[in-house]
Structure to design on (285 residues):
């Protein structure tokens, strides 16, 4: 089967029916049925023979099959046991595809792509675990170069948000600390089966060398979480508990970082969050 034929509504329905697969809301299953959007995703991934692709939630193999034509290897992780036999049959002709039954939030991702020199994550992510899956991939010790992922439109707004906007938050900082974010295209709910209740978007995350890197990323994460825990609080108040837990005066910490105590977390740049984490680390030592 070609990628375009797999992406048709009739093919997806007939495959699910033939294998007795019931669509499961608990897994956030919404299968892509639009060949044009499929092609845009594959093109954005810029796949080549040296690439190992990690796909989370391959569904009926629409995206998997298209990527197998271009990538050196595709590792597709599927949590739904009912879909695994379907995938193995549909993709039987793709010798470079490995179907793995398991939960991508629990499975050892590094082991799955062992030996790969370059990894790209390309996936139509389940809405209910989008943020944890993105962070799992970004934080895993992988030779990750790029992620091209379909997410809920609201999440796409958060991923690419700028400081000072209502969408800017802890997820934004955590992602933009590690990657450049580009919104590729809007995706209407009508191109999925079954149809979700919200629209989607495809975003491209390109890993980048750290222009400013926190020496202690654990402290960096503590500072970011605390800064957004109660958005209306000033940094002086929001960071008091974190600083106190490490035996540090919050005023001294903010002064060393060169950050105005009266600001709120939503107005800080990535570099300012790093500066706060560095000031905290220096005071702790």
């Amino acid at each position: 089967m070609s990628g375009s034929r797999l992406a048709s509504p009739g093919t997806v329905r007939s495959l699910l029916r033939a294998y007795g697969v019931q669509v499961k809301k608990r897994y956030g299953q919404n299968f892509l049925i639009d060949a044009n959007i499929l092609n845009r995703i594959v093109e954005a991934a810029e796949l080549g023979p040296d690439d190992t692709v990690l796909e989370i939630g391959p569904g009926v193999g629409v995206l998997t099959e298209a990527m197998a034509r271009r990538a050196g290897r595709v590792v597709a992780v599927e949590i739904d046991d009912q879909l695994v036999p379907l995938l193995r049959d549909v993709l039987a002709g793709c010798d470079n595809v490995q179907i793995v039954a398991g939960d991508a939030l629990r499975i050892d991702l590094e082991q799955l792509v062992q030996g790969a020199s370059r990894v790209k994550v390309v996936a139509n992510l389940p809405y209910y675990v989008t943020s944890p899956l993105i962070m799992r991939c970004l934080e895993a010790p992988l030779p990750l170069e790029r992620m091209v992922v379909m997410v809920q439109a609201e999440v796409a707004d958060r991923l690419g948000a700028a400081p000072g906007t209502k969408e800017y938050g802890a997820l934004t900082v955590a992602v933009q600390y590690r990657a450049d974010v580009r919104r590729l295209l809007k995706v209407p709910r009508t191109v999925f089966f079954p149809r979700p209740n919200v629209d989607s978007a495809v975003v491209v995350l390109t890993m980048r060398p750290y222009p400013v890197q926190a020496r202690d990323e654990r402290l960096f994460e503590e500072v970011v979480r605390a800064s957004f825990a109660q958005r209306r609080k000033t940094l002086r108040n929001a960071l008091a508990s974190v600083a106190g837990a490490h035996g540090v005066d919050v005023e001294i910490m903010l002064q060393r970082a060169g950050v105005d105590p009266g600001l709120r977390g939503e107005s800080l740049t990535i570099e300012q969050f790093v500066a706060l984490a560095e000031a905290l680390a220096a005071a702790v030592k």
